């Protein structure tokens, strides 16, 4: 369950909440998007700080990306698709292509510089994510 601040951000900004079944449609409809992985707000209280900062960042970048919040029950599965190392996380995408992530709370100037860099970055190839490797022609004995 999201914290009060996160819930207010979703309502006031009219951000969609996406999960494993709705994410691809959301991504296909946007040139650039940012997925907000909040984590458990009791365990990661910085999520509330990001919930206050994120709408300001979206306003600063004036329509250059669309924000969605990842449903708590989908976060673990989607973290496997778009890996990052700490919470909360803002995951940047161009269409369905992963550009990178900003984790934890940052200084305003760091956010601005990193978001600008990510919006212009080449998509990252995520080797082996979700693809099982099976050896063929191997005799087991």
TrEMBL record:
Q: Which Pfam families does the record cross-reference, listed alphabetically?
A: HyaE
The transmembrane residues are none
Q: Which InterPro entries match?
A: NiFe-hyd_mat_HyaE, Thioredoxin-like_sf
Q: Which domain of life is it from?
A: Bacteria
Q: Provide the family line.
A: Belongs to the HupG/HyaE family.
**Protein's UniProt name:** Hydrogenase expression/formation protein
Instruction: Give the species.
Output: Sedimenticola thiotaurini
